[in-house]
Amino acid sequence: MNINQIKTNTNNPRIIKGDKFTKLVQSIKDFPEMLKLRPIVIDEDNVVLGGNMRLRACKEAGLTDVPVKIAKGLTEDQKREFIVKDNVGFGEWDWDILANEFENSDLNEWGLDVWDTKDIDLDDFFTDDIEDKEDTNKIIL
């Protein structure tokens, strides 16, 4: 659908700004095919129910057409419920899988805020300091 035919939802309670929005724009530029797999959801009046920030990012990325899914027959209450439920994160990340199966630089680039190993000095972390151990073994009465 032509991006100019889609209306943002002025009552959308979810926003993405700053660095996270910049990452979203870049993500769309790098992998626009993902929009086909997760289209913007609109109602019969072309008002966004799901994907307001993606729509904004698509405009910023210079796209002129975007995939949409039209949600037909929803009541106003169902539309409001959809807007919130579409943005609620029910799950949790499995940090062990993330740490062992993904590169943290990729995760950061894809918009997931994770650790940056270049900021961690593991040599200091694993150094045995006898003096510190002796202090922890003292009993103070």
CATH topology (level 3) name of the largest domain: Conserved hypothetical protein from pyrococcus furiosus pfu- 392566-001, ParB domain
Q: In what order do the strands lie side by side in the largest sheet?
A: 2-1-3
Low-confidence stretches: none
Task: Based on the coordinates given, report the CATH architecture of the largest domain.
Answer: Alpha-Beta Complex
Q: What is the N-to-C succession of helices and strands?
A: HHEEHEHHHHH
Estimate nothing, just give the exact number of structural domains.
2
Query: How many E-type strands?
Result: 3
Instruction: State mean pLDDT (0 to 100 scale).
Output: 84
Biggest beta-sheet profile: 3 strands, mixed
User: What percent strand?
Assistant: 5-15%
Helix amount: 40-55%
Rg from C-alpha positions? Answer: 23 Å
